[in-house]
Amino acid sequence: MAKLDLDFVRAQFPAFEVPSLQGQAFFENAGGSYTCRQVIDRLHRFYTERKVQPYAPYEASTLGGAEMDEARARLSAILGVEGDELSFGPSTTQNTYVLAQAFAQWMQPGDAIIVTNQDHEANSGPWRRLADRGFEVREWKINPETGHLAPADLANLLDDKVRLVAFPHCSNVVGEINDVAAICAQVHQAGAVACVDGVSYAPHGLPDVGKLGADIYLFSAYKTYGPHQGIMVIRRDLGMQLPNQGHHFNGDSLFKRFTPAGPDHAQVAASAGMADYIDALYDHHIGGDAAPAAKGAAVHDLMQAHERELLQPLLDYASAKNSVRLIGPDKAASRAPTVALALQANAEEAAAQLAPHGIMAGGGDFYAGRALEAMGVDMDRGVLRLSFVHYTSRAEVDRLIDALDHVL
């Protein structure tokens, strides 16, 4: 496998060039990544040259609509799904909320759904609220020591009443990468729908959703180097069964059925820059002709190889500290580089103490209070979360570890 050319990568992100961020190491990527140049350029072009109602028969409008269509077509191809199976919304939280309303109309009295306590609240809360509509909500619980979701525990919850299982590709605090393909197969065998929250996974390489077998896959563009949009894949057979949540006259259009509020045209168009960036990484490191999903898979592996090389020293450091509890696995191969640490001190205060060392990080519960409480974390202290992606350097991780030594 080619080794990631970090100089090339960082040249694609204007944030590394601005004076105000010089000497600052960004370790809060799980809350939102830097935006790549390709997205910024497209966004600027749309707002300056295409900011008209799209799809009308004059040039600025036609070009604007074509750029929106390009984003959907190219991203869906990378994700291994059909073009109309991908839709944009204001956020993943909003997309999940709309889906929950559709399922509430579609399900029958006595039906059940399964959620986990490993999730960020965005993929759990909207489904849990369906208990108020008379549906049974069952919880797939994590191991309180490790944070792991055991498939055997899911098997004990599945029966012919279950219509949907919502679970994360990986948690935004536990970090362990769940075996989505195996879980989806388990869910389908029970006759239920698999809804996967990919928000904390997708920044580390866009997955081939077609191969994973997820019926629904959600993630956030602003955490995958793009604009502030929620991206949702919903497979056609399911999407056309669920009640339309959009305007009645859009009921025949799959990518409009679950977006009752039209997304920002410019941000949709700019999302094609995410595909531009993946192509740029592929061309620079690998080259040659390949299908979009194959390019996406190659870039996915390139990103993760670099991240894991940097992650293991941080995990080793945290594991060796008696004053620190590492949340989730201690092996880089089984997790994302989203590292939550339970400290003896208040985590927000620790994050503030890291700032003078040039470390940008955060403390709190990160909307994953259910997982942290289940693992016995003192919620008054929260956790210090240190999250990075493929544009992070070894020198930045070394600086982080040095800073932690001073602060802890």
From TrEMBL:
GO molecular function: cysteine desulfurase activity
Known EC number: 2.8.1.7
Ranges for domain Aminotransferase class V: 26-243, 302-400
InterPro entries the record matches: Aminotrans_V_dom, PyrdxlP-dep_Trfase, PyrdxlP-dep_Trfase_major, PyrdxlP-dep_Trfase_small
Entry keyword annotation includes Metal-binding: no
Domain of life per record: Bacteria
Pfam family, one: Aminotran_5
Protein name from the UniProt record: Cysteine desulfurase
